[in-house]
Amino acid sequence: MKRYHLMFLILALAMFLNACNPTTKKDQSTDRNSSTTKVSYFGQTPPGMTAEVFAPGLVSVNGRYEYAVTFSKELDELYFSGNKKGGHSRTYFSKLNDGKWTQPTMVNFTNGKRSSEFQTFIDPKGDRIYYAADGPGNAKIWQSSRVENSWNEAKELKLPINDDIVFFPNMANNGDLFYTNLSKRKVYYAPNKSGKYPEVKEVGIAYGFHGFISPDQDFILVDARKENDKTKDKDIHVCFKKKDGTWTTHINLGPAVNSDFAETCPSLTPDGKYLLFSRYNEEGGLSNIYWISAEVINKVRPIDL
């Protein structure tokens, strides 16, 4: 009888330890799902500290400009801009279905009301998409709202934001809307006032185009001309917000990101892990999309911030 009692205690102890073991089958399944998520960027192994072409042959293709990437917060939708040389700028879309990304297809938010639609950005909540649309040479910021698995009718924002020629909209987590003013060649933002945008303000950096704000507004990415460089092409720079609310001077992200070709249109994945940008290194001066670990930004962050 004692022997059976001892066997029962051993069996009970084994079951308890198995329940507490972090490598149970359930957790292994979770690990596998996590691995799938990690490589869900078009099946690519995420880059480290060296920039790589993003989704070559699918998103980055020969014979076309590609730029301005945005992902949904769930990382299962991708929008980017593209156009042939001399052609209108268009928005392309791909969806992650059953672990596979669909072939990117062209979308038309304005149903032909505008000749170009480009530089999309899905807001942090995922229920609105912003983009620039023009026709011709008069770019304004438009918006569509999510309706189940689609977007509703495109609407031009009737706000002070659109009192000038503007493009490259993007948004911080608190809803502040950032954009580039083409006429003034500066980065501006519209503070979120309970879901409304009654005023616009200069960001306050000395120069730069295609300003992309970090989710918490602790830094802003821009492309800007190199200083003291023969080629004078554009590089990706970062300005960090200081404790007094002003910005640091522009800091070049260095050779891990920048090259002897122009780099423009920086953006971040919603999880903050990766920096994406365009590099104009294809024959004929066309651009492809590149990506790199966002750790490259932290590498240049001043230690006193």
Number of helices: 3
CATH architecture: 6 Propeller
Describe the main β-sheet briefly: 5 strands, antiparallel
Q: How many structural domains can be distinguished in the coordinates?
A: 1
- Give the low-pLDDT segments: 1-39
End-to-end separation? 70 Å
Strand content: 35-45%
Q: Which range best describes the helical content: under 10%, 10-25%, 25-40%, 40-55%, 55-70% or over 70%?
A: 10-25%
Class of secondary structure makeup: mainly beta
Radius of gyration: 23 Å
Mean pLDDT, nearest integer? 87
Q: Provide the CATH top-level class.
A: Mainly Beta
Q: Topology as H/E string? A: HHEEEEEEEEEEEEEEEEEEEEEEH
CATH superfamily, called what? TolB, C-terminal domain
Total number of beta strands: 22
Explain what the structure shows.
By secondary structure, the chain is mostly beta strands. It has one domain (48-298): Neuraminidase. The protein has helices spanning 2-20, 25-38, 295-298; strands at residues 52-53, 65-71, 77-83, 90-97, 100-101, 105-107, 116-122, 128-134, 140-147, 150-151, 155-156, 166-171, 177-181, 186-190, 201-202, 209-213, 219-225, 234-240, 251-252, 263-268, 274-282, 286-293. The strands form five sheets. Strands 2, 3, 4, 5 and 6 form a five-stranded antiparallel beta sheet that branches. Strands 7, 8, 9, 10 and 11 form a five-stranded antiparallel beta sheet that branches. The protein is globular and about 45 Å long. The N and C termini lie far apart (70 Å). The relative contact order is 0.12.
Task: Tell me briefly what this model is.
With 305 residues, the chain is mainly β. Helices cover 12% and strands 38% of the residues. It is built from 3 helices and 22 strands.
